[in-house]
Specification:
The complex is a heterodimer of chains A (277) and B (174).
Chain A (H helix, E strand, L loop, with lengths): L3 H25 L3 H24 L1 H11 L1 H39 L8 E8 L9 E4 L12 E4 L2 E9 L4 E5 L6 E6 L5 E6 L5 E6 L12 E4 L11 E7 L10 E5 L8 E5 L3 H5 L1
Antiparallel strand pairs in A: 1-2, 1-12, 2-5, 3-4, 3-12, 4-5, 6-7, 6-9, 7-8, 8-11, 9-10, 10-11
Chain B lengths: L2 H17 L1 H4 L1 E2 L2 E2 L2 H32 L6 H20 L4 H25 L10 H14 L1 H12 L17
Antiparallel strand pairs in B: 1-2
Classes of the chains: A alpha+beta (277), B mainly alpha (174).
C-alpha cells in the first residue's frame, strides 16, 4: 500500500513546478497579465526601496569603500586623465568645429537633435544574473515606453527592456540578446550587429558580404528603417574587419559610448520620422 | 497574525531588501541571494509542503525583483526547499559549521540550477564563465546572513505547526 503522507510533498512539488512552467510559457507568449504582475510587484516595493536605500546609504558607502577601493582609485585616475585630455581638446575646439560640422554633414548625422529624456543610473537589478542591464530613475510617469532607444552624447547605449512607473531597466548594447541594424559609413553596407557579452564590443556578423571593403577605424552608425533606433546614431568604430574570413564575416566594433562608466543617459522619446509629422 | 499574512510580510520585506541594500553589498560583482535563503530556510523550518508553497511564492517575487521571466526562480526554489526539508533531519543534530556548510551548498546549488534553467529558456546572461565562482561566493556571502534570517523565517512558517516533542525514556537522564 503506498505511503500517502510521503507522496503528498511530491504531488505538491509537481503541481508547483507545473504552475511555474505554465507561467513561463505565458511569459514567452507575451501574455500581458504576467508582465503586469511583475511590474505591479516592482511598483509596490519601489517607494520602500528608495527609503531603505537612503537609510543605508552610509553603510553602502563604507562597503564600497572597502571592497571597491581599487576600482574607485582607477576611476579617479581615469577621470583625471580625461579632464587633462578635455582641457587640451578645448584649445583645439575652435579649429575643429568647422571640420566637425563638415563631417557631420557628409554622413548626415544630426542625432543630437532627437527629443530625449535625461535619466540617472541608480544601479543594477538584484541577484547574480543580470549583467549588461542597468536601472534608471525614470519610468512611464516620465513618458518612457518599452523598447525606446537609449543613447549618450557619445552614441548608442541600449534600449528600455522593462518600464515601471518610476524606474526602468536598460538592456545594454553588449547584452547577448541585443540586436541593432547598422550601416558602415564609408562603404554604406548595412548589416545586423549583436552584443556578445564582451565589454564594449559589438559583433557585426549578418548582412555584410565577405568581399565588402571594411577598414579598421571605419565609423558605424545605426541604419534606422524598421529598427527601434532612428538612423545615424553613432555606434562605434571597426576594430577588426575580419578580412581573412572565408565564409561568414565577424566584424568587431568598439562602442563609442563607454558603457562601464555611465552616470546619465538620454532616452529617446520619439523617432525623427514621428517628430517631422 | 496568521501564517499567510506573516509570509506575505516576509516576502515584501525580502523583496525590498534584495532590491536595495543587498544589491549594493557585492564582492567582485557577486551578491547575497536573500530570497533563495528564505526558500531554503522555509523548507528547513516549515517542512516539505509548507516550504514548497512559501518558496514558490518567494521564487515568483524574485522573478519580479530581478526582472527575469516569471517562473524561472519559482521552478527551482520549491525543489531546493523540499530537498533541504528531506535532508533536515540528518543535519539538525550536526555542529553549526556543518549546518552553515549545508546552507552554503544549498545556495550554490540553487544558483547553478537557476542558471541552468535560465539557459534552457534562452536567458543567455544566466550562464556565464564565472558561474562556479558566482555560486561559491554567493553561497558564502548568503550564509553569513543565515542566522538572523533563520529566526525570522522560523517565526513566519512555523505558526500553527505542532511544537517540538522531546521523547523521554524511562531511566534516561533528564
Amino acid at each position: 500500500m503506498p505511503n500517502r503522507s510521503s507522496d503528498r510533498p511530491r504531488v505538491v512539488l509537481l503541481v508547483l513546478m507545473a504552475a511555474a512552467l505554465t507561467l513561463l510559457t505565458a511569459q514567452f507568449r507575451n501574455f500581458l497579465p504576467v508582465d503586469d504582475f511583475q511590474q505591479g510587484v516592482r511598483d509596490v516595493i519601489s517607494p520602500f526601496r528608495k527609503v531603505i536605500d537612503r537609510a543605508t546609504d552610509p553603510f553602502q558607502t563604507v562597503w564600497n569603500g572597502i571592497f571597491d577601493y581599487e576600482e574607485v582609485s582607477d576611476e579617479n585616475e581615469r577621470l583625471q586623465m580625461e579632464i587633462a585630455r578635455m582641457r587640451g581638446e578645448g584649445l583645439r575646439d575652435e579649429a575643429d568645429r568647422e571640420l566637425l560640422e563638415r563631417l557631420l554633414g557628409e554622413v548626415d548625422i544630426d542625432y543630437l537633435e532627437l527629443q530625449t529624456v535625461v535619466a540617472r543610473i541608480i544601479g543594477v537589478p538584484g541577484g547574480n544574473y543580470n549583467s549588461h542591464v542597468v536601472e534608471i530613475d525614470k519610468g512611464t510617469d516620465d513618458g518612457l515606453e518599452e523598447g525606446a532607444g537609449v543613447i549618450t552624447k557619445a552614441g548608442l547605449v541600449g534600449y528600455l527592456d522593462e518600464v515601471d512607473r518610476s524606474t526602468s531597466l536598460v538592456r545594454l548594447a553588449t547584452h547577448p540578446d541585443f540586436r541593432v541594424g547598422v550601416r558602415l559609413v564609408n562603404s554604406q553596407d548595412e548589416g545586423l550587429a549583436r552584443g556578445n557579452g564582451s565589454v564594449g564590443v559589438l559583433i557585426l556578423d549578418a548582412g555584410i558580404n565577405v568581399d565588402a571593403e571594411v577598414s579598421i577605424g571605419e565609423v558605424v552608425v545605426t541604419s534606422g528603417g524598421r529598427s527601434i533606433f532612428p538612423q545615424d546614431i553613432p555606434v562605434g568604430r571597426v576594430i577588426n574587419p575580419d578580412k581573412e574570413a572565408d565564409y561568414a564575416r565577424s566584424i568587431e566594433i568598439n562602442l563609442s559610448a563607454s558603457l562601464e562608466n555611465l552616470s546619465f543617459l538620454n532616452v529617446i522619446l520619439e523617432s525623427r520620422e514621428n517628430q517631422s509629422k | 497574525m496568521n501564517t499567510s499574512l506573516r509570509v506575505l510580510t516576509l516576502l515584501i520585506a525580502g523583496a525590498i531588501l534584495q532590491s536595495s541594500i543587498f544589491t549594493e553589498i557585492r564582492i567582485d560583482g557577486m551578491g547575497v541571494e536573500l530570497l533563495l535563503l528564505i526558500s531554503i530556510l522555509s523548507g528547513y523550518h516549515g517542512g516539505p509542503i509548507r516550504g514548497a508553497y512559501v518558496s514558490f511564492w518567494t521564487g515568483l517575487v524574485n522573478d519580479c525583483v530581478v526582472a527575469s521571466p516569471l517562473g524561472i526562480h519559482a521552478l527551482i526554489y520549491p525543489v531546493i526547499a523540499v530537498a533541504v526539508s528531506n535532508l533536515e533531519e540528518r543535519f539538525i543534530s550536526e555542529k553549526r559549521i556543518i549546518r552553515a556548510f549545508g546552507i552554503a551548498l544549498a545556495v550554490a546549488t540553487g544558483v547553478l540550477l537557476t542558471a541552468a534553467v535560465g539557459h534552457i529558456f534562452g536567458e543567455n546572461t544566466f550562464n556565464t564563465n564565472s558561474l562556479p565562482e558566482t555560486a561559491i561566493i554567493a553561497g558564502v556571502m548568503t550564509t553569513c546572513f543565515s542566522k538572523p534570517i533563520s529566526r525570522i523565517v522560523n517565526w513566519t512558517v512555523s505558526s500553527g505547526m505542532p511544537k517540538e516533542v522531546r521523547a523521554q525514556f524511562a531511566g534516561s537522564p533528564r
